[in-house]
Design brief:
alpha/beta; globular
C-alpha cells in the first residue's frame, strides 16, 4: 500500500479552474486534470522564474519531489495543447500559505481528490 502524499504548500489558488479550446463544444472534449500543487509548481518555476531549489523550499517539498510535480504538470499541459483537450484544475493535497491563521483548524492540509 503506497504511503499517502505529504501536504504541499501553495501560495496561490487559481480563480479560473477550467480552460478549453475555442470553438469546440464542451461535451466533445476530453479533459486533463491538473492538481492545485501542479499549477503552483508551474507558477513558481515558469512564471516567477525561480530555481527548482527555491521552488521546492517554498512548497515545502524536496527538490526531487518538486521536479516530479513539475514534469507531471508540464506533460499534462502539453498533452492538452497538442491533443486539443480541456484543462480542469482541481484536487490535490495542499495547504494554503497563511491560511492557518484564518482557518478553524490551524495547520490542516486540504485533501482534494480530483479525477486523474
Amino acid at each position: 500500500m503506497p504511503r499517502p502524499p505529504k501536504c504541499r504548500r501553495v501560495e496561490f489558488l487559481p480563480q479560473h479552474t477550467y480552460f478549453k479550446p475555442a470553438g469546440i463544444p464542451l461535451r466533445e472534449l476530453e479533459e486533463v486534470v491538473l492538481a492545485v500543487e501542479e499549477v503552483e509548481a508551474l507558477r513558481l518555476k515558469d512564471l516567477e522564474g525561480l530555481e527548482q531549489e527555491e521552488c521546492a523550499e517554498r512548497m515545502q517539498v524536496s527538490r526531487p519531489t518538486f521536479q516530479r510535480i513539475l514534469v507531471g504538470a508540464r506533460q499534462k499541459v502539453s498533452r492538452a495543447l497538442v491533443e486539443g483537450k480541456a484543462i480542469r484544475v482541481e484536487g490535490g493535497t495542499f495547504a494554503v500559505a497563511g491560511e492557518a491563521a484564518r482557518g478553524p483548524a490551524p495547520g490542516r492540509c486540504r485533501h482534494r481528490h480530483g479525477r486523474q
